[in-house]
């Protein structure tokens, strides 16, 4: 967002009092979270706490129904926007379980995705379809190849990678590296990494983490969703949040993740519930 003096304010993802259901069951019960471009946040919590649900709701998965609250991105409430429009605005989601797309090469997919991203999204455009094909400007092959080569060198990806079909026959580590390569090419303002460490051995985790670190900077906000502290040994967050029963119950600095890892979620939740119980007794 640009001010009159030409200064560009960092983009923010602002989630306010977000409630969401899936198949009639409430999963998110009042999530409040703000991530600013240039920051790295970690969202931790036990299984079933709502972490992946939050990622899918932010990206606009139709399976989830938002019943209350709002999600603002760059000052615009995106709840009524389709997932592709959210992506065009600059939000990226790396999936926990990336799907294979037989017959579509990584290189071809990246080129078409980048063209759509550069086309952008105009929030003032008519909501209803016009019936006309959009005038999409293609990327010159030389420009695309140069950019792709630069990103692959940065992420230490083999050149043969782009000729393979998306995630078909990929190892767990290769799938996650493909996701990070997509992120590098699309250059989003905000990236959500949904359990990127899931299913990775130590070497693959280190390689993927190095890729994320290579892309971090003032133009990228990152929300890392994880069960475990181990990925945070490689990607140091600015803020750590713990989610429990559909709400963020506690936040802290980078050392908070070590505290959570040491005492475990059960102990943390017990302490929080005991503290809330004491406050209620005093108020009574």
Termini separation (Å)?
Answer: 46 Å
Radius of gyration: 20 Å
Tell me what portion of residues adopts beta-strand conformation: 25-35%
Content-based structural category? alpha/beta
Helix content: 25-40%
CATH fold-level name of the domain at 12-99 and 188-283: Rossmann fold
What is the total tally of β strands?
Answer: 12
Could you give the order of strands across the largest sheet? 6-9-10-3-11-12
Shape-level CATH architecture of the domain at 12-99 and 188-283: 3-Layer(aba) Sandwich
Query: Main sheet, how many strands, which sense, barrel?
Result: 6 strands, mixed
Task: Output mean pLDDT.
Answer: 88
Global morphology = globular
What's the SSE pattern?
Answer: EEEHEEHEEHHEHEHEEEH
Weakly predicted, low-confidence segments: 279-284
The CATH fourth-level homologous superfamily of the domain at 12-99 and 188-283:
P-loop containing nucleotide triphosphate hydrolases
Question: What does this protein look like?
Answer:
This protein has 284 residues and is of the alpha/beta class. It has helices spanning 51-59, 83-89, 106-119, 141-155, 172-186, 202-215, 256-283; strands at 12-22, 25-36, 40-44, 64-73, 76-77, 91-94, 101-105, 165-166, 190-194, 221-225, 239-244, 247-252. Residues 279-284 have low confidence and may be disordered.
């Amino acid at each position: 967002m640009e001010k009159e003096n030409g200064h560009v304010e960092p983009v923010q993802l602002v989630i306010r009092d977000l409630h969401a259901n899936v198949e009639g069951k409430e999963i998110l019960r009042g999530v409040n979270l703000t991530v600013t471009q240039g920051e790295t946040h970690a969202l931790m919590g036990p299984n079933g706490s709502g972490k992946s649900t939050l990622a899918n709701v932010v990206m606009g998965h139709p399976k989830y129904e938002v019943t209350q609250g709002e999600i603002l991105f760059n000052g615009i409430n995106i709840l009524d926007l389709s997932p592709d429009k959210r992506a065009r605005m600059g939000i990226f989601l790396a999936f926990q379980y990336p799907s294979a797309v037989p017959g579509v090469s990584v290189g071809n997919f990246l080129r078409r995705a980048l063209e759509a991203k550069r086309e952008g999204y105009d929030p003032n455009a008519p909501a209803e379809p016009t019936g006309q094909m959009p005038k999409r400007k293609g990327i010159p092959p030389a420009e695309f190849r140069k950019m792709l080569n630069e990103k692959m060198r940065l992420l230490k990806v083999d050149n043969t990678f782009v000729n393979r079909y998306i995630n078909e026959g990929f190892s767990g580590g290769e799938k996650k590296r493909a996701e990070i390569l997509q992120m590098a090419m699309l250059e989003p303002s905000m990236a959500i990494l949904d359990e990127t460490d899931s299913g990775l051995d130590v070497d693959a985790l280190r390689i993927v983490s190095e890729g994320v670190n290579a892309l971090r900077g003032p133009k990228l906000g990152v929300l890392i969703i994880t069960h475990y502290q181990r990925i945070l040994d490689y990607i140091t967050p600015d803020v750590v949040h713990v989610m429990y029963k559909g709400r963020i119950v506690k936040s802290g600095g980078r050392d908070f993740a070590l505290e959570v890892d040491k005492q475990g979620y059960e102990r943390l939740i017990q302490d929080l519930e005991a503290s809330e119980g004491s406050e209620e007794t005093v108020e009574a």
